[in-house]
Design goal:
The chain has about 325 residues and is α/β, with parallel strands linked by helices. Helices cover about 25% and strands about 25% of the residues. The longest helix is centred in the middle third of the chain and has 14 residues. Ligand LG3MXSP7 binds next to helix 1 and helix 8.
């Protein structure tokens, strides 16, 4: 029998999550039945969606939702061999049993030298979010100007680099000077720290006096309300996320409509990346190629230890991550 460690949601979040909202438990896993696999998590993802989705999709006592890169340690399923790596959506667990239906094998072209954790970030759901949000929602064209916020994060950093590959001018903002320096290092034309500028309006105007053709919005709130006023005629806004809203116990009133826009994928180009699940292989192939060519740089914020998952999650929500936030078991 294998003992799995799991993190459960002890208490629904009020405002920013607290470590006391989580409980670490142990579960004895049964022996495998025919067709089943035993897997061990190697890398786990912490993502912003977990904050709002926990309130919508979970009840107290449930195992936290989430994805991981896992290794097959025992198999009674001929389609999966011991030692293979997969991406799973099994939540915050060290070990789990699967029937294989919900697993995605890492591409066979994945080089040994490339960290498998990238399957949770640049060459995974966040990367696909950038890829499809830019190509299918922003519909960026060469010569246009693209604005992205949370630009040093898992999604934003890929948005900016893909926009450069697409021949665009790219403006990004992030919440620290180190992140701004990173943005310039990976090719952003303009970048600023939204926490320290005296005026967001002026910073946006200075970065692109003619305004913006595309706005890839990860944040919503006040930033979006200001940026929207600097869009060029026929500009397009990809409403990807509203992380400025997720931790407010009382959702902001007034002009902040991003959260329902994203979730209901309203006409104003709100979207959820799962819309393109049928084109997942296309996106992953393109992202992997650009990473291997060095055209898309990757950065990960790695937290060591399964016991530190709540801290990694809270840290990401507070902006402590540069690049994709992951936990190494
Ligand atoms: N629609 C979809 O299908 C998907 C949407 N998303 C959304 O994309 C966005 C980015 O996700 P992801 O790249 O994984 O996360 P990141 O790696 O960017 O981490 C979150 C970042 O958000 C920024 N942030 C946190 N709170 C605020 C705030 N109050 N105001 C401004 N910025 C804030 C912080 O960076 P900083 O230093 O810049 O403040 C923090 O590092 C999120 O809104 C997420 O919900 C992600 C995946 C799929
Ligand atoms: C209160 C409304 C919330 C508004 C939308 C919030 C967040 C947008 C976002 O971050 C969406 C992420 C989508 C992720 C898609 C696929 C997965 O990897 C997560 C699957 C979650 C699950 O169903 O297990």
């Amino acid at each position: 029998m294998v003992t799995a460690k799991v993190w459960v949601l002890k208490k629904h979040f009020e405002g920013f999550p607290k470590t006391s909202d989580f409980d670490l438990k142990k579960i004895e896993l049964p022996n495998l039945k025919d067709g089943e696999l035993l897997l061990e998590s190697v890398f786990l993802s912490v993502d912003p969606y977990m904050r709002p989705y926990s309130r919508m999709d979970m009840k107290e006592g449930d195992i936290m939702i989430g994805t991981q890169v896992a290794r097959i340690v025992e198999s009674k399923n001929p389609a999966f061999t011991v030692g293979a790596f997969v991406v799973a959506r099994s939540g915050w667990r060290t070990h789990f049993i699967s029937d294989g239906k919900d697993l995605q094998l890492l591409p066979s072209s994945w080089p040994e030298s490339l960290p498998k954790s990238l399957a949770l970030g640049t060459v995974g759901m966040p990367g696909l979010t950038a890829y499809f949000g830019l190509l299918e929602v922003c519909k960026m064209k060469p010569g246009e100007t693209v604005l992205v916020n949370a630009a040093a994060g898992a999604v934003g950093s890929v948005v900016g680099q893909l926009a450069k590959i697409g021949g665009c001018k790219v403006v990004g903002c992030a919440g620290s000077d180190d992140k701004v320096a990173y943005l310039k290092k990976i090719g952003f034309d303009e970048a600023f720290n939204y926490k320290t500028v005296t005026s967001l309006d002026e910073a946006l105007r200075k970065a692109s006096p003619d305004g913006y053709d595309c706005f890839f919005d990860n944040v919503g709130g006040e930033f979006a309300s200001i940026a929207i006023n600097q869009m060029k005629k026929y500009g397009r806004i990809a409403v990807c996320g509203a992380i400025s809203q997720y931790n407010d116990s009382v959702p902001q009133k007034g002009p902040y409509v991003q959260v329902p826009m994203i979730f209901k994928e309203l006409r104003m180009e709100g979207f959820i990346v799962t819309r393109w699940n049928n084109r997942r292989e296309e996106g992953l192939k393109a992202l992997l190629k650009w990473v291997l060519e060095g055209k898309v740089k990757c950065h990960e914020q790695v937290t060591e230890g399964f016991e530190n998952m709540p801290m990694a999650f809270i840290g990401m929500l507070k902006g402590e991550n540069l690049g994709k936030a992951i936990v190494k078991v």
